[in-house]
Amino acid sequence: MARRRTNSRTTLTTVIIALVLLALYQLLDSNGLLSDNSPLQADTQGGFVEVHFIDVGQGDSIYIKTPTQDILIDAGERGDTVVDYLKSLNVDELELVIGTHPHSDHIGGLINVFEQIPVKEVMDPGTVHTSKTFEDYLTLIDEKNMVFTVVRAGTKRTYEDGASLEILSPSNPGEDNLNEASIVARLTYGDISFLFTGDAEVPSEKQMLDAGYQLKSTVLKAGHHGSVTSTGDDFLDAVSPEMAVIMCAEGNSYGHPHKETLVKLENAGIEVYRTDMHGTIIVETNGAEYEVRYAN
Ligand SMILES: [Zn+2]
Questions:
Q1: Are both 26 and 130 inside the same structural domain?
Q2: pLDDT in tens, 223-247
Q3: N- to C-terminal Cα separation, the chain
Q4: Which of 75, 116, 141, 275 lies most in the core, judged by the most C-beta atoms within 10 Å?
């Protein structure tokens, strides 16, 4: 009798302890304490992809690190901001640089990058611009014997680490509005994807929609610094991102990002990150989950 009572009391104690531990675990988990403390687990191949939205003031610059590739999209205005940032990450070579379009807030800093970091290949929309900046950019590509690839929508690179990069625009760029020549690229790693839009505006967005490309992406780099001339309703519906990044300078003279774009993103329940408010924004993914952090 006594023994049985002891047993049932032991069982009851065990059940109570288990319940308390379960409640404690749920409390910690709901407060994000458990998930935040455990780092992102590597994927089955042990790999991560990092995307750095570098704060270059009024301009774009995005550094992508896959397990096998170092890729740079634009580098803001002329100056060493991006070179210094890449050097701080010990990037000693770039497999690929994308100069989205010839405006100086995108390719200016690439001149400094080309002078100081070896680059294997440059993707360019192949449109002509008469600025000194564009001339210097082309001269260096030539002098340093980089592979110069004029890309069009439909080009796709798949890397041995499983990451892939697909070019969705331009299809047939004119010379009137250079923003519309912007190279738009979609990076995929496992289930997580990123859409980099340069300064592509609504007509480019419509071409991508009409072409039937897979646009749905986890992260959207909002087109043209959050201008109202980009991120049209249909395009945003198709991309349907969880988060959007706007790259612009605090107090810039263009009024970027435009309020209409911010309201649209907010109404769609999209988490917005801005380089003018957060500085450099880093998204790290194992192909299944992603984490956002700020550079120090
Ligand atoms: Zn721009």
A1: no
A2: 999 999 999 999 999 999 999 999 9
A3: 66
A4: 75
